[in-house]
Amino acid sequence: MSNSGSAAQSGSGIHSGSGVGSGSSPGIHRGSVPVEVANVDGPVANQDAQDLEIQVLDKTADVLTLRLAHIESSFANALRRIMLAEVPTLCIDTVEVFQNDSVLHDEMLVHRLGLVPLETFYTANDGTRHNITREIVNPRDCNCDSHCSNCSVSFELRVRCTESTRLTVTSVDLKNAMEPSDKGANINPIHHPCVQDTYPIVLVELARGQEIHVKCVARKGIGKEHSKWSPAATVAMQYIPEINLNEKAFAELAMSDKKRWIQFCPRKVYSFNKQRNKVEVNQENVTKCFFCEECMTNQTEPFGNFKGKRQLVSVRRKRDMLGRFDYIFTIETTGCMTSAELLTEAVQIFYEKIDVSKRSLHKNLRTGNREGELSGARSRSNSGASPGGSIFSGASPAMSSTSASASYLGGGESVVSGQSSAIEDIPWA
């Protein structure tokens, strides 16, 4: 019996509480109603919103790109870390090797099997999506001796090469060994014949006469325990830039110098309007800015002469009056679930964590007969005394500091437009 521990498969949607794909209008709801964006193809919106803005920029099965505006950095980073390390998935944990005539040692073969992503969400016969990790129990909580249908899913790989040419063994050959009535009977590797336009994962090649026969046991786990359980290929947080052009300073430059200055930007964030003889921000590429500051620090003539209030451009991270930044979230999964399902599961876990913290706080205050302090803090928060809000305010069990469902930046409005930070930060203002 070998453990399928594997090296880095590091990790990267919003849903919580109710099921994924409910078909209702996407939005952020207050109180005990969870956030749902599993089916969202456009902006997330709700009339209760005051601050938080969420906009879906791009969405595919494995990649989701979101714009989050007016969000606390701690909140955004907590969401990112949960997606990487705390969303449970199903992964091959132990392998029993009966026969292995391939060129790979048993340990290497088991290692590769452990890295094969398995479906965490599966489609039932009625077309609904189900999360297998919510149907099976944690192996540590099961009363069985080793494994059973209540805590694990079994697979079998048995292949023999009988031809003169080499046989490639892939994840397609990894078959589900559960009974049809068992909970995990519908779980397969993510690349299997039922999925169109996908390529199976190569495990090993066999020569004529060689055979592989192994039995695998997949269990529930999280990326914090081992990276093979991480559902995320990547979760990236990118600051949205706020770019201000000094038109008075640009008026002193010749047309040739303006065109030459534009070329300094490696991401083509700027463009030249010939009709207006003016340098402009290219709204299509503005989110590609990665703050290299080449446009601000270039010292070649005559641009090195523009300093202080004569500085040609100001580039900084966009934030509001409360110091909250705007981000672009890029979430890519390993294929075990869709990107939207990953985000919704992460939000649900976030809810649960905050709810546990709130109940623990109530318990400690009751123990010390200080529960009135919490009521007073809630009253002050509800009356608007705290501009930043309190995460424990109101009747919402969690996340009420974001008390605001998203407002959509529609049509031609720029992604970088909106509430600006203090104008005195701009050198020439």
Question: Can you lay out the helices and strands and say which pair or pack?
Answer:
Layout: E1 2-3, E2 43-44, E3 53-59, E4 63-71, H1 73-85, E5 89-100, H2 106-114, E6 121-123, E7 129-131, E8 152-160, E9 167-170, E10 174-176, E11 202-206, E12 211-221, E13 232-239, E14 241-245, H3 247-250, H4 255-262, E15 270-273, E16 278-281, H5 294-297, E17 313-317, E18 325-333, H6 339-367, H7 371-382
Antiparallel strand pairs: 1-5, 2-3, 3-4, 4-18, 5-12, 6-7, 8-10, 8-12, 9-11, 13-18, 14-17, 15-16
Q: Which strand order does the major sheet show?
A: 1-5-12-8-10
One letter per element, helices H and strands E, the order comes to EEEEHEHEEEEEEEEEHHEEHEEHH
Q: If you average the pLDDT, what whole number results? A: 78
What is the terminal-to-terminal distance?
70 Å
What gross morphology would you assign? flat
Share in helix: 10-25%
If you compute it from the alpha carbons, what radius of gyration comes out, rounded to the nearest whole angstrom?
Answer: 27 Å
Provide a count of the helices.
7
Low-confidence stretches: 6-50, 385-424
Summarize it.
This protein is of the alpha+beta class. The chain is built from 7 helices and 18 strands. The strands form 6 sheets. Strands 1-5-12-8-10 form a 5-stranded antiparallel sheet, with helices on one face.
